[in-house]
Amino acid sequence: MRGAKVASGQIMATLSTSRARETRLSFESAMQRLGGSVISCSDMKASFNAKGETIADTAKVVSSYADVLVVRHNWDGAVQAMAEHADCR
To answer: What gap in Å lies between CA 71 and CA 8, rounded to an integer?
Structure first.
């Protein structure tokens, strides 16, 4: 379906403990091509972890702002933990 905007009206949040710009940019451009918008936190370590928030806290807070979460984290269990606590559709 070329040209379909299947993510129209959706917000994707990108969260990363890495500064890998290629990964972030590829996900962000894909969402925009699908018609959605993007909010991002390019350095999760500095913003959430520094404040003492848990992965569960972060998932709950960020999922209240977004419909889709894209997570890149240095802890192997982070994505599963976020999926268990996020309130995304």
So the answer is: 21
